[in-house]
Amino acid sequence: MLIHPQFDPVALQLGPVAVRWYGLMYLAGFVAFWLLGRLRAKDAWRGVTADDVENLLFYGIFGVILGGRLGYCLFYQPAYYVEHPLAIFEIWQGGMSAHGGLIGVLVVMALYAYRHGIGFWKLADFVAPLVPLGLMAGRIGNFINGELWGREAPAALPWAMVFPQAGDGLPRHPSQLYEAALEGLVLFLLLWFVSRRPKPAGFVAGLFGVGYGVARFFVEYFREPDAFLGLRAFDLSQGQWLTIPLILAGLFVMARSLRGAKSH
After folding, report:
1. pLDDT in tens, the chain (264 residues)
2. Most buried among 56, 91, 198, 251, by the most CB within 10 A?
3. Boundaries of every domain in the chain
């Protein structure tokens, strides 16, 4: 059985400015997007240029942060934030939703595609493989902070871990690392491999929805539900209920993409 290392959440102190590991993880995700995006943009058939990548990154940062924060407030604690609206801006207190961040990115992509005359699904297929490494970085940030820990695990499990922040001394699943591996690395490799050659418009984006949704749904069985929510209907967590529509939407987009390809 392991003990969480209790990392200092502040990676670097520059006078009054504290640079936190969680912020650095976001930065790592954005850098990965930029580097891999420019690499993908070298394939002319993708229809996205290196300049588009830089513009998408700039606007996407706002989409991720605003969508992630507003999504958390709306999906997880709406009553609290209605009573305390100024708390919405207290991002340093934590509270970001991956589902909300995804919605924010979709809005940014839709606006960018419209303004620049790029097909939305072509753009979505380009962006989809660039997202998982950012998700992975975010989950590593959760692990460093010792937050969003897992459910109780058998003490005999070699990687079972005690999170002192939980305050109960129980061995738990390091579910943040499970998510980093499945939603991050595995999904990235899958999407990168599938998108090496042209696919029907929307197929890769739909696969992202299904892949992320299935990975998140599975890992939620090992992640401790939010204390203020607990488990919902059918003993599913809020994260699982939010993920079901994403899986269904991904399947629909993939089927629509393949159906459209056959009709041409």
Report:
1. 899 999 998 888 888 888 889 889 989 999 999 999 999 999 999 999 999 999 999 999 999 989 989 988 888 888 888 888 888 887 766 678 888 889 999 999 999 999 999 999 999 999 999 999 999 999 999 999 999 999 999 989 999 999 999 999 999 999 999 999 999 999 999 999 999 999 999 999 999 999 999 999 999 999 999 887 889 999 999 999 999 999 999 999 999 999 987 766
2. 56
3. 10-262
- Cα 255 to Cα 46, 210, 216, 233, 259, distances in angstroms: 21, 12, 21, 29, 6
Q: Annotated binding residues, as ranges?
A: 139
For the beta carbon of residue 147, count every other beta carbon within 10 angstroms.
Answer: 15
Phi, psi for residue 19 in degrees, rounded to 5? -95, 115
Q: Which of 148, 200, 198 is nearest to 176 (CA)?
A: 148
Is the pTM for the entire model greater than 0.70? yes
One-letter identity of residue 119? G
First to last CA, the chain: 57
Cα 7–Cα 32–Cα 203 angle in degrees, nearest 5: 120
